[in-house]
Amino acid sequence: MKHIIKCGDTLELIKSVKKDSIDLLVTSPPYWAKRVYNGEGEIGTEDTPELYVSRLADFFDELKPYLKQSANVFINIGDTFFGSGAGAWNKYVDSDGNITHYQKERKEKYFTTKPLQPKIKQNGKLYQNKQLLLIPARFAIEMQERGWILRDDIIWQKPNRIPASVKDRFNNTYEHVFHFVSSKKYFFDLDSVKIMGNNGKKKNPGDVWAINTQPLQGDHTATFPEKLVEQIVSCGSPEDGIVFDPFLGTGTTWIVCDRLKRNCVGFEINQDFFDFAQRRYSESGGRISE
Ligand SMILES: C[S@@+](CC[C@H](N)C(=O)[O-])C[C@H]1O[C@@H](n2cnc3c(N)ncnc32)[C@H](O)[C@@H]1O
Fold it and tell me: Which of 39, 97, 157, 206 has the CA that lies 20 to 30 A from 229?
């Protein structure tokens, strides 16, 4: 397969990709105020959920010219609650916006369980402590407003989710995977993902997918499982097609593409994660190409 895997900012690197060439975009962007990957200014560090949603939609709009008319877009995105830990972001960056205590707090940098929400004044409406912000829904609506067609809101249910210590609500055990297209006619190979029904006939697997999270060794904690990507790559792209992950992280999409005989274009801005992805790919049996 011909994979193009590069380290850098996707919105710069995409310019070297041919327009109208991508069959499937599958990705998991940084969520709002959840983790620090690279420092201030990166996607996910916006001052409000609304700014995050519009910036993320801008990002996918910029990638649109590189997708075929028949392309599929699958975006995995998580939600968050308003409030706790407000202002914590400041302690991670110095006045120049650089992450502080890099070595000492390396673990905290990536593995933090402390919320990183910027300080937003409560307003008695959306901005109230404990409020579930519905960021995935807001993002999906914003994409619709911009002309994307939403075909599915797939629920990725995580059977192995560790119980949280919360006492006044249920433990969150799922995330959304939105399926967008830009044209009413698009590639979709449902047969490739059908499952066996009770009557011995193959059937549509439905839109709730129970898939365990797949922890990896290393610094990156926000990987999506290979099984989730396998399902999407199988139905959302033809064999020998081009699959694009603009937030490659630890290379999950790359590994799955190689296994399923798709060409992968993957960009990752963080050198540590990029190096980790290279190692992971070669350990998976893949050959390092470009
Ligand atoms: C949620 S993680 C993706 C994890 C990935 N799905 C995996 O399985 O490992 C998001 C990634 O996007 C990267 N990133 C953020 N902004 C970027 C940009 N402008 N260009 C390329 N990568 C970016 C981050 O460094 C981070 O590794």
Answer: 39
Q: In ligand 1, which atom is closest to the CA atom of 76?
A: 6
Ligand 1 atom closest to the Cα of residue 220 is 9
d(CA 230, CA 46): 31
Q: Which CATH superfamily hosts domain 4-81+120-283?
A: Vaccinia Virus protein VP39 (3.40.50.150)
Note the pLDDT tens digit of each residue in 230-262.
Answer: 999 999 999 999 999 999 999 999 999 999 999
What are the tens digits of pLDDT across the range 18-49? Answer: 999 999 999 999 999 887 777 777 899 899 99
Segment holding 185, helix H or strand E: none
H-run or E-run covering 272 = helix 271-283
Residue to mutate, 56, 247, 268, ligand 1, most ligand atoms under 8 Å from C-beta = 247
What are the C-alpha distances in Å from 122 to residues 34, 79, 119? 19, 18, 9
Say what the alpha-carbon torsion angle 61, 178, 55, 174 is, to the nearest 10 degrees: -160
Provide the residue ranges of all domains of the chain, joining segments of one domain with +.
4-81+120-283
**Can you spell out the DSSP letters for 116-138?**
-PPP----SSSS-TT-B--HHHH
Share of the chain above pLDDT 70, in %: 86
pTM of this structure: 0.91
Q: How far apart are CA 13 and CA 17, in angstroms?
A: 8
Residue 34's pLDDT is 81
What does the alpha-carbon distance between residue 224 and residue 26 come to, in Å, rounded to a whole number? 11
E-assigned strands of 1-127?
Answer: 4-7, 22-27, 67-77
E strand or H helix that includes residue 148: none
pLDDT at position 40, please? 72
